[in-house]
Amino acid sequence: MHSFEQRTALVTGAAGGMGRRIALDLVAAGANVLMIDLAPAPDDLPRDPGRTLYVQADLTDESAVAKACARAIEIFGGIDLLANVAGALWFDRDRSALEIDLDTWDRVLAVNLRSMVHTARHAVPSMRARGGGAMVHFSSTQCLRGDPAPQDAYQAAKAGVVALSKSLAIQLAGDGIRSNVIVPGPTESPMQGRWEHHPGLRDATARAIPLGRVGRVEDMANACLFLLSDQSAFVTGTELVVDGGLLAKP
Question: What's the alpha-carbon Rg for the chain, to the nearest Å?
């Protein structure tokens, strides 16, 4: 459906789950792709020096992000697209704001929100120079609801993603740069690795979703490529909920 020929995308969290799927789909659709992740590159990611660049780096380190973007601009000529997919769920440490260790709070916000500030800061100048671009930032349905087993740092960070994206959309509209958010529901990915050890949790989650299953990384990748593509050329400053109907339930 989508062609990304002659365009370069930056994808974070590319070592697994949604980020990996998005990176693979963008390469298949003709894009050059800069992939950044804290983990080493998986064996199945394409290695084409003319079209792909994998950088193992900590996205909370702005200097590392700046160096990766500079390398991609040198190799590919610029950056047109940004998919901010990287994130972390710390089930063992993230809890109510009333009791969470504040160093943990700061680290969760750095991984899930500040990292997106870093990538935007170093991708947008190239987008401006190239006459426009598109960004997609990943939030979570958790930011729109309470939880009896709270992960308040994660939820606050993901709410911040929505606010950041809206602000960027208005700031950058005159430059032809769009900014949107995907709000995934529960999705089978490495972030939900606990389901492998507790399949009953996965099944219970699926039963709570009107479409009767949890999300797949392909569901999120399809939504992301739509928002990055010219088919969504008049869409900016909004959120696309991809949750099988979960938030629509009474």
Answer: 17
Whole-number Å distance between alpha carbons of 115 and 135: 14
Work out the mean pLDDT of the chain and round it to a whole number.
Answer: 94
For position 44, what pLDDT does the model report? Answer: 86
Q: Does the pLDDT of residue 191 top 70, yes or no?
A: no
Which candidate in 18, 138, 154, 220 is catalytic? 154
**Active-site annotation holds for 154:** yes
DSSP 232: G
Q: Alpha helix locations (H) across 54-151?
A: 62-76, 102-109, 115-129
Strand partners, 52: 33
With a CB cutoff of 8 Å and minimum separation 6, the contacts of 106 are none
The candidate with the shortest Cα–Cα distance to 81, out of 235, 208, 225, is 225
Distance of CA 160 to the CA centre of its chain: 13
Burial class for 138, CB neighbours closer than 10 Å (0-12, 13-18, 19+): buried
Reported as a single tens digit per residue, the pLDDT across 68-122 is 999 999 999 999 999 999 999 888 899 999 999 999 999 999 999 999 999 999 9
Tokens 């780096």, residue located:
57
What's residue 97's pLDDT?
95
